[in-house]
Amino acid sequence: MKSLWDDEAAAAFANDDLAMRVYTSRLLGSSDDLVMHGGGNTSVKATTRDFFGNELEVLYVKGSGWDLKTIEKPGFPAIKLKETCMLAELETLSDPDMTRQLRALMLDPSAPSPSVEAILHAILPAKFIDHTHTDAIVTLSNNPRGEAILAEVFPDCLVLPYIMPGFILSRQVNEAIKRNDPGQYRGIILMHHGVFTYSEDAKTAYENMIELVTRAEDYIAAHGTSEHPTADHPVDLLDLARIRRAVSNTRGSAQLAMLDKSPDAQGFASLPNVADIATRGPITPDHVIRTKRIPAIIDTKPAAGVPEIEQFAADYRAYFEANSHAELQILDQAPRVGIWRSAGSIAFGSSVKECNIITDIARHTRWAIQTGESIGGWEALPAKDIFELEYWVLEQAKLGKSGTPKPHQGKIAMVTGANSGIGKSTCEALAADGAVVVGLDVNPDVVAQLDGSGMTGMVCDLTDSASVTTAVEQVVARFGGLDIVVCNAGIFKSGETIEDHTEQTWDQTLAINLTATQRFLTATIPYLKLGINPSILVVGSRNFAAPGPGAAAYSVSKAGITQLARVAALELAADGVRVNVVHPDAVFDTAIWTQEALAKSAARYNMTIEEYKSKNLLGREIRSTDVARLLSTIASDTFLATTGAQIPIDGGNDRVI
């Protein structure tokens, strides 16, 4: 572990304690071997002035919801130091009361809630306090000889047994520092939890942390290994989709299943004893909120229904019954991590962000497990201790703030013709409703158009079957399955009568509008059959029912995909896949409608372009966003009992009606 301290950079904060606190907190946060995804906490003691201008000693401590990697000054709420220290002297203090008292001591009630370890930060008699959950030290503490190893490696540290975070941990430390002057120690190590370092100056506190972690790394290098087996095995994507569906059904909502098939993930998953060593518990109890206590171990070739997920749920219920009391209600019984034998590690979650966090924790966990085994064994805390944190009232309060899930949360969608118009708007609507969306288009600009906010643009020639298959497989490999398919890609060339129709216009229109739709459905249907309330949406046209002169190829192609959708609805109903068609008309903010095409169509009706845009019965201009909202709604559970439908979105057309 290398110190990242930079004297020149730090000099800019020499006269600002809080700015210095931000600087060193970010140094700690920059290494995920120290803290991950909101873990760890830091503080600084300083003086400030209250509302009336009185000088006041305060503790600036990391606030809830902030990450050390990116924390800023507002991430450190100020609380009254003297009164916070007094809380540690109480005989008892419930967690809800502790939270209320800490909020009552805040100078700014609108600031984020202080860390649950704020009392501990307050009672340590040093200005700067750093706390991390460093992998190396926690790995040593998760050893059958953990206490002896830590005493050997850290004779200048106070080592304390594991106890729940919050008030009781603060009480434990308070009693310990009354018996032992903390000034004689480089830090305090909490078994199975992490390490505190502290000093009157920020550099010493930070570099003490780095030095202690380096000692742990040196011990591991001398007595074991941090290099572990790797592997490279093929993955069956249909099996991945089956696993995802089983987990989603168990949790009661759509889940992404993001597979980590990196060499080290596959190496761990290929270990003969992986079912034993991977199910002993997390590195530190804090991880249970993200990952549950243990992962599900899934066979290389899972059977129908994936019985391993059913067994995980049954085992979780038994774990709950063995450790719960009357006031508790069981959480969902679905795993958050799957160790898929030979194939790697799967993160199950409702969003990409959640899955990325779980993937990172799983990566650090397998490193710690294998490293721990190499130095004499891996021994996590007993299940009852993990349960206490999983069902801790303060952690449950965090979960309760998640709010109502969006209609497509955890779902995976693909949209064709996504670079502009209806396709791009549909990607945006589905993403806004919670789905992860991949938009396909032959135009390379689609990558930039759909960059971020739950959307990804992918270049794909839909008339090339191999390219389509590759695109679909890439989506499934990345997210775990497929739930929503929107067939929107199309071209429109008007003005050619049947008598004058060129072969190029006819062939190109049918290839893109009709044949490519069929090929795309052929590639996606096997995964949709394993999707969560899966839905196929076909963007047709008013022309299928009320064609106009000079648009034979377009009208025929739209009639063709309408018929294709009707057949698909008949064929796929037994598998729970819904297939519906929307028929827009006169949606002019799309790439299909060039100014030339718009002018020609308006002229046929002896209208101006503006009149032509709203010539429907309602006199309303239809926009791509209107179509997109309808498509997203049809894909939702609102239309769960609808298939084979054809829904116009044209403002009312007298010829169709």
Can you summarize this structure?
The chain is of the alpha/beta class. The protein is built from 25 helices and 18 strands. It folds into 3 domains: about 5-225, L-fuculose-1-phosphate Aldolase; about 235-395, Class II aldolase/adducin N-terminal domain (L-fuculose-1-phosphate Aldolase), CATH 3.40.225.10; about 410-645, NAD(P)-binding Rossmann-like Domain (Rossmann fold, 3-Layer(aba) Sandwich).
Number of helices: 25
Strand order of the largest sheet: 3-2-1-4-7-6-5
The CATH superfamily label of the largest domain reads: NAD(P)-binding Rossmann-like Domain
Give the tally of structural domains.
3
Q: What radius of gyration results from the CA coordinates?
A: 30 Å
Helix content: 40-55%
Q: How many extended strands? A: 18
Kindly state the mean pLDDT as a whole number? 94
Strand content: 5-15%
Overall spatial form: elongated
Based on the coordinates given, report the CATH architecture of the largest domain: 3-Layer(aba) Sandwich
Main sheet makeup:
7 strands, mixed
